[in-house]
TrEMBL record:
<feature type="binding site">
    <location>
        <position position="107"/>
    </location>
    <ligand>
        <name>(6R)-10-formyltetrahydrofolate</name>
    </ligand>
</feature>
<keyword id="KW-0658">Purine biosynthesis</keyword>
<feature type="domain" description="Formyl transferase N-terminal">
    <location>
        <begin position="3"/>
        <end position="182"/>
    </location>
</feature>
<feature type="binding site">
    <location>
        <position position="65"/>
    </location>
    <ligand>
        <name>(6R)-10-formyltetrahydrofolate</name>
    </ligand>
</feature>
<feature type="binding site">
    <location>
        <begin position="90"/>
        <end position="93"/>
    </location>
    <ligand>
        <name>(6R)-10-formyltetrahydrofolate</name>
    </ligand>
</feature>
<protein>
    <recommendedName>
        <fullName>Phosphoribosylglycinamide formyltransferase</fullName>
        <ecNumber>2.1.2.2</ecNumber>
    </recommendedName>
</protein>
<dbReference type="GO" id="GO:0006189">
    <property type="term" value="P:'de novo' IMP biosynthetic process"/>
</dbReference>
<dbReference type="InterPro" id="IPR004607">
    <property type="entry name" value="GART"/>
</dbReference>
<dbReference type="GO" id="GO:0005829">
    <property type="term" value="C:cytosol"/>
</dbReference>
<keyword id="KW-0808">Transferase</keyword>
<feature type="binding site">
    <location>
        <begin position="12"/>
        <end position="14"/>
    </location>
    <ligand>
        <name>N(1)-(5-phospho-beta-D-ribosyl)glycinamide</name>
    </ligand>
</feature>
<comment type="pathway">
    <text>Purine metabolism; IMP biosynthesis via de novo pathway; N(2)-formyl-N(1)-(5-phospho-D-ribosyl)glycinamide from N(1)-(5-phospho-D-ribosyl)glycinamide (10-formyl THF route): step 1/1.</text>
</comment>
<dbReference type="InterPro" id="IPR002376">
    <property type="entry name" value="Formyl_transf_N"/>
</dbReference>
<feature type="site" description="Raises pKa of active site His">
    <location>
        <position position="145"/>
    </location>
</feature>
<dbReference type="Pfam" id="PF00551">
    <property type="entry name" value="Formyl_trans_N"/>
</dbReference>
<dbReference type="InterPro" id="IPR036477">
    <property type="entry name" value="Formyl_transf_N_sf"/>
</dbReference>
<comment type="function">
    <text>Catalyzes the transfer of a formyl group from 10-formyltetrahydrofolate to 5-phospho-ribosyl-glycinamide (GAR), producing 5-phospho-ribosyl-N-formylglycinamide (FGAR) and tetrahydrofolate.</text>
</comment>
Length: 209
């Protein structure tokens, strides 16, 4: 089973979806460790409850981005992590860090990329008046939510939506999409080659757009 390092900053509901998927005998990955850059993140509690090694690396206390990323790399290597999953991890990773896990860093983002990268994606979608929103799992490059796409799921935007209701509808899809995309990636069905996504087999029917 592929060893995942999951990076978090907040509530960790996407981490929970990965932990739940990994608890199934036929899932091809396991969570080897969870690292939060925010010491108070509830995600750390979820990891501990699941019996997964969890630790905080305070990005503010680290002093510099280089120092923070160096300890992050050492922590992930010490846990023999093969794939890195960003599950609500609100820090950009440098190209230097990414070379430590080439083609093996995945991020989930609450919009249909390339629309609405960055912060407050759901608010951006509402302000723009889109009628279809969603979420994306993509390979991470050094840009902000710019990497090649692994999988997406769409939801409608309803006339009386506010940021909270739209976010909740998208989040429910995120919880299905992230485990699906991780499965596709770790089994080599979708991979990063020459800066683009390569699909090795016809897409699975269960929710892959
Ligand atoms: C999720 O909606 C995730 O897509 C988003 O943060 C939330 C984390 O929720 N990530 C980003 O916006 C990254 N650009 P969670 O902590 O409950 O998984």
């Amino acid at each position: 089973r592929a060893r995942l390092g999951v990076l978090v900053s907040g509530s960790g509901s996407n981490l929970q979806a990965l932990l739940d998927a990994c608890a199934r005998a036929d899932y091809p990955a396991e969570v080897a460790c969870v690292v939060s850059n925010v010491p108070t993140a509830y995600a750390l509690e979820r990891a501990r409850r699941a019996g997964v090694p969890a630790m905080a690396l305070d990005s503010k206390a680290a002093g510099s981005r280089g120092a923070f990323e160096q300890s992050l790399l050492e922590t992930l290597r010490a846990a023999n992590v093969e794939w890195v999953c960003l599950a609500g991890f609100m820090r950009l990773l440098s190209a230097d860090f990414l070379t430590g896990f080439p083609g093996r860093v995945l991020n989930i983002h609450p919009s249909l990329l390339p629309s609405f990268p960055g912060l407050h994606a759901q608010r951006q979608a509402l302000e723009r008046g889109v009628k279809v929103a969603g979420c994306t799992v993509h390979f991470v490059d050094a840009g902000t939510d710019t990497g090649p796409i692994v999988a997406q799921a769409a939801v409608p935007v309803l006339p009386d939506d506010d940021e909270a209701s739209l976010s909740a509808r998208i989040l429910a899809e995120e919880h299905k999409l992230f485990p699906l995309a991780v499965r596709l990636a770790v089994t080599g069905k979708v991979s990063l080659e020459g800066g683009r996504t390569r699909v090795a087999a016809p897409p699975a029917t269960e929710g892959l757009c």
